[in-house]
Amino acid sequence: MSEPLDHRKLYRLPWSLSDNTIAWLEPTSKCNIYCEGCYRANVNQHKSMEEISADLDVFAKYRTFDGVSIAGGDPLTHPKIVDIVKMIQDRGWKPILNTNGHALKPELLRELKRAGLMGITLHVDSKQMRPGWKGKTELELNELRLQLAKMIGDAGDISCAFNSTVYSDTLDQIPGMVDWAQEHIDLVHVMVFICFRAAVESAYEYYAGARKIDMQQLVYSDPPAGTRLDITARDVVAKIRERHPDFEPCAYLNGTEKPDSFKWLLTGRFGTKKKIYGYMGPKFIELAQTSHHLRTGRYLAYAEPKTLRRGKWMLWLWPFDKGLRRTFLRAFFDPRLAFRPLHLQSIMIIQPIDVTPDGRQNMCDGCPDMTVWDGRLAWSCRLEECMKFGQFVRTVPKACVPAPEGEPVKAGTNGGA
Ligand code: SF4
Predict the structure, then answer these.
(1) Beta strands, E only, 167-239
(2) What is the pLDDT of residue 3?
(3) How far apart (Å, rounded) are the C-alpha atoms in residues 192 and 351?
(4) What separation in Å is there between the alpha carbon of 264 and the centre of ligand 1?
(5) Mean pLDDT of the chain
(6) Which ligand 1 atom sits nearest the alpha carbon of residue 351?
(7) What is the pLDDT of residue 400?
(8) What pLDDT does residue 195 have?
(9) Could you tell me the distance, in angstroms and rounded to a whole number, from the CA of residue 335 to the centre of ligand 1?
């Protein structure tokens, strides 16, 4: 039976503003589909190679990192995406594509791999206006996810991750998505669940400096009435534990305002298509991150698929980690594993901005997805504010009775978190 989530018992990932795992590059603002939860306006604008190189210079000046997440918009709409991957590879970082996969084709994938592509994170969820897949449930979309995972598997040795935004009406489907990922544990290396967020205009006023601003100008304002805006990582774990009571996270990033909030919550499970043998513990992930940093000077972003197929070797670190010890005992005495690989698969839950009743903004402390704005690093999830107002906005509670702590925050009610 799993333990209640207590941040003091998990490993606090060592990622910071200046020393992190990744940097978030946006070579384009153009996208080829539309997603309800998107936090970027779809503008038909591509950055030049010179501008992209300048962004990489800013990252290199301020941050140590292992990989570059190439996002957007959708990066596959950029005509020079293969050159961008090569540029990142040539500068010694791991190129990771963050795409909806709509434009992904086997021949393009082969070109990207030749250019040095190390991983792909595919954003697939039921709130996307994706031709041929509109109105499908999250579980029905597993068919599309499998098509994409097989395409990446065929290209070989490219890390494959899926991310989905979590809404109140898709939360119940998460255990099914977790099970799907296990059935394809040989192809799918990471599942990412991102809790939906939007600006709550009923509860707060917004200011850019001293200037009161209208958030309606931003794509992440005005969500459909009744949409929950405060689903947390704890809610997602609780949902997964309804089907997998032993589901055990091991590491986290806390919030900038709330130290016990799980803004990034990582779980690693060892298994086969048929069985999960156990979960990595806090000591194992600490060893993985610190030994990689000692060896390379960087924290580890995206392990290689061939490493993730070697779960049995990792279990020999059982003397250092409780989770590994439990897994080792279950795996060691199972003859079926004698001739099968044991895979390590990660599940990451991300809980974006939370605004407290008094207006403080609880961001991810050690945000990995920092991008470039005006020659400095900025939260990519709120870049629109900089682009529209020249700075991040402040949230000031409206002079009305805030919702009691713990009350669900829905569009049209007061703030919480
Ligand atoms: S602060 Fe925003 S951009 Fe950074 S990790 Fe959190 S949600 Fe992502």
Answers:
(1) 190-195, 204-208, 211-213
(2) 66
(3) 11
(4) 9
(5) 94
(6) 7
(7) 55
(8) 97
(9) 43
CB 239, CB 171: distance < 8 Å = yes
pLDDT score for 62: 98
Using the mean position of ligand 1's atoms as its centre, give its distance from the Cα of residue 382 in Å: 8
Q: Which of 115, 99, 184 is nearest to 155 (CA)?
A: 115
Given a contact cutoff of 8 angstroms between Cβ atoms, the answer to whether 401 and 222 are in contact is: no
Q: How far, in Å, is the centroid of ligand 1 from the Cα of 240?
A: 23
Contacts of 280 (CB under 8 A, 6+ apart): 250, 268, 269, 270, 314, 321, 323, 324, 327, 344
**Cis? peptide before 73, omega within 30° of 0:** yes
The token duo for 175 is 């255990």
Report the candidate in 133, 138, 132, 136 with the shortest Cα–Cα distance to residue 173: 138
pLDDT tens-digit series, residues 372-382 = 999 999 999 99
Ranges of residues in the chain with a pLDDT under 50 are 401-417
Beta bridge partners of residue 69, listed in sequence order: 24, 96
Question: What was the pLDDT predicted at 331?
Answer: 95
Question: Could you tell which of 121, 350, 385 is best to mutate to test the pocket of ligand 1, judged by most ligand atoms within 8 Å of the CB?
Answer: 350
Nearest-Å Rg of the Cα atoms of the chain is 21
What is the spatial distance between Cα 21 and Cα 58, in angstroms, rounded to a whole number? 16
Residue 416: its pLDDT value, please? 42
Please list, in sequence order, all residues whose beta carbon lies within 8 angstroms of the beta carbon of residue 74, skipping any fewer than 6 positions away. Answer: 28, 30, 31, 32, 33, 99, 100, 102, 103
Q: How confident is the model over 112-143, as pLDDT tens digits?
A: 999 999 999 999 999 999 999 999 999 999 99
Distance of CA 236 to the CA centre of its chain: 14
**Residue of 26, 194, 231, 364 to mutate, ligand 1, most atoms within 8 A of C-beta:** 364
Q: Rounded to an integer, what distance in angstroms lies between the CA atom of residue 181 and that of residue 162?
A: 9
Instruction: Identify the structural domains of the chain with CATH numbers, from first to last.
Output: 7-200+228-391 (3.20.20.70)
> Which ligand 1 atom sits closest to the C-alpha of 380?
3
The DSSP line for 323-354 is: HHHHHHHHHHT-GGGGGS-BEEEEEEEE---E
Q: Which among 146, 220, 213, 216 is positioned nearest to 183, based on CA atoms?
A: 146
